[in-house]
Here is the input.
Amino acid sequence: MAKNTLDNTFSRRTLLATLATSAAGVAIADTSLAGTRVPTSAAQINRWDITTDVLIAGSGAGGISAAIEARRAGAEVLVVEKLNKLGGSSAMSGGVVYAGGGTALQKALGYEDTVEAMYHYIAGAGRKHPHLDKIELYCEESVAHFDWLVENGVPYNKLFNGAKGLGFNEASLYYSGSEQAWPWRDQYPPVPRGHVPWEKGHQGGRKLMESLLMSAHKLGVKSLKRVAGERLIVESDGRVVGMIADVNGERKTIRAKRGIVLACGGFIHNRDMVKLYAPELYDCSAPWANAGDLGMGIQMGMGLVRPRYEWIKALLFALFIRLKIR
Ligand SMILES: Cc1cc2nc3c(=O)[nH]c(=O)nc-3n(C[C@H](O)[C@H](O)[C@H](O)COP(=O)(O)OP(=O)(O)OC[C@H]3O[C@@H](n4cnc5c(N)ncnc54)[C@H](O)[C@@H]3O)c2cc1C
Here is the structure.
């Protein structure tokens, strides 16, 4: 009897410790990761308004490329876009794709490039401590990426532009990097790698997105505008099964039977996130990107990872307290 009372006391203490530390853990997650969007439990959802196989949030190059591949793999695909125009920052961009290692366009214009030369240039010319494994993969897949763009209807003109920077003519290949400058030019023969869709002026991004959106549409990808993903919906085992979205001002639930892709762009228009994660850009007077770059996709993704980690820490801490009490 006495032991039971003691055990009960320990249980209560442990429970209190667990609750206190768990609450602290969640609080840490909320304050240290600005705007984290904690997911909603599927148990709270009593109705699905829309159902699809694969749900993609964001209609820029990332989202539409994922949509094309998911559709080719046989899934029913729905792309939701926060704004009332598809294309994101990708459509505002120059559309320059840094590609090399011997793309069809490089070859057609008489330039010999290798994966090795491309890898050494990016690894050396980028920031300190680059992610070498990612650079390696990017370079190895570069020829295939370029072919993929062409397969999906992005036009390239067999014309080289020798001017410094992105030209206003209709050339599709130019030096978008510093390959011709020392020390890079001494290591490997300089090769142009800036691939620009065939379009006058600086409208390559618009052409890129028109082409990819057309390809997605032909394949049967569905899209909805003015639909903003707000929160992910997760099962108790952690599986992401849907999303709560603002659909023209109304809150709706979207079920994704086979997966969700968050491709909502960056966060340059979210002042709090810029201050916290990119303070060097905070004073920039002209944040230049699509108005939808509010970091919502990143916040939804952060909501999945961090709080669970904090709960594990909290539980371990509670266990530690329990052992100390014993
Ligand atoms: C002027 C300019 C020129 C550039 N030029 C180049 C270039 O030549 N080459 C290059 O490599 N890079 C360039 N960049 C950078 C490049 O455009 C971006 O890195 C790239 O477009 C990002 O693609 P994305 O698909 O991740 O995002 P985006 O193209 O921005 O698409 C994200 C989409 O998600 C939508 N969205 C946001 N939140 C939600 C939500 N909650 N629910 C649903 N939808 C949401 C947004 O409205 C947007 O349409 C340029 C950028 C700018 C601004």
